[in-house]
Amino acid sequence: MKFEHKPVLLQECIENLKIKPDGIYVDGTMGGAGHSKEIYRRLGQNGMLLGIDQDAYALQVAGQRVKESGGQARLELENSNFKFIKSICGKHNIEAVDGILLDLGVSSHQLDEAERGFSYQHDAPLDMRMDRRQELDAGIIVNKFSRDELRDIIRDYGEEKWAARIAEFIEKARAKGRIETTWQLVDIIKAAIPSSARREGPHPAKRTFQALRIAVNDELGILKKTIHDGFEILKPGGRFCIITFHSLEDRIVKNEFLSIARPCSCPSEFPVCVCGKKPEAEIITRKPITASDGEMEENPRARSAKLRVIEKISLI
After folding, report:
1. CA distance 83 to 137
2. How confident is the model at residue 5 (pLDDT cuts 50, 70, 90)?
3. Is 123 helix (H, G, I), strand (E, B) or coil?
4. Do residues 166 and 187 make contact, with C-beta atoms less than 8 angstroms apart?
5. Most CB atoms within 10 A, among 6, 30, 280, 283?
């Protein structure tokens, strides 16, 4: 199977990574290699690119595309989750890196591959696992989690105001038989949300599907951990670029970057800092970088993309 991947904010990422020919770079979400190819092309013979992806097929295709793009740099691939970035780097004898990129969007390939169950636009088994080796999937959450747990997931991860009602309708529906497919769930969500609330705005199932995907893959917990682990292995002058696609992710990136760049924990009423915590980074993007009108027209999936960048500074 072939699939196309349009990388979002490509030039902005490349510019902000400040790629050095002999540098070591990590693409933690290699996907279709849209970003990786451009990173690799800028590396010299002594450079290195480490590509990580949970999707084994996507990683295989990405590796081939990078190799075909030209260049002589070292290329290493890992079928894993970027939450293991420190141990993966250790496995490849990498002590520190010059740049890290994370693109947190679900790849076009995963959305378009109907049987993965990510999309409410295709009828498929309730799955949504980015790593098919894990046990927890959307079907387990929908059919086994309590009504209160479902409500909290849909409300907190989907920011869905009808979360309680959707959870109630799911509970009633599964009492009659297991909910197996995405379209079964879509029908339940549509029934739960009053018709007047469905006339405007996004597809009524969008927020619930987002919430389930985040819960299945523990995306927010992993993101917070990875920001700190990734920053720890950055060289001074190295940059960490993260592309997010919804407010929950963006808020985490913004706050964690701030906690690294402004670590002082003294009460606000203190006239001077006494905690002694020193900034370890400079925030490069005071406001997130967003896609141009031209890119949004060419690639609608770029509309909600936001890029934030932080640079490690030397404490010496």
Report:
1. 19
2. low
3. coil
4. no
5. 30
- How big, in percent rounded to 5, are the helix, strand and coil portions of the chain? 45, 15, 40
b/e map 58-97, b = 16+ CB within 10 Å: bbebbbebbeeeebebebbbbbbbbbbbbebbeeeebeeb
Distance CA 242, CA 130 (A): 18
Q: pLDDT per residue over 92-140, tens digit each?
A: 999 999 999 999 987 655 665 667 889 898 899 999 998 888 999 999 9
Residue 181 DSSP one-character state:
B
Which whole-number Å values give the CA distances from 85 to 120, 144, 228, 241, 245, in the listed order?
31, 32, 10, 14, 21
pLDDT exceeds 60 at position 1? no
Residue in the block written with tokens 């076009």: 108
How many residues appear in the chain? 316
Nearest to 55 by CA among 28, 84, 73: 28
- Single-letter amino acid, residue 174: R
Q: How far apart are CA 134 and CA 260, in angstroms?
A: 32
Helix (H, G, I), strand (E, B) or coil at 128: coil
What values do phi and psi take at 101, rounded to 5?
A: -125, 130
Residue 226 CA to residue 29 CA, distance in Å, equals: 12
The DSSP string of 35-102 is: HHHHHHHT--TT-EEEEEES-HHHHHHHHHHHHHT---SEEEEEES-GGGHHHHHHHTT---EEEEEE
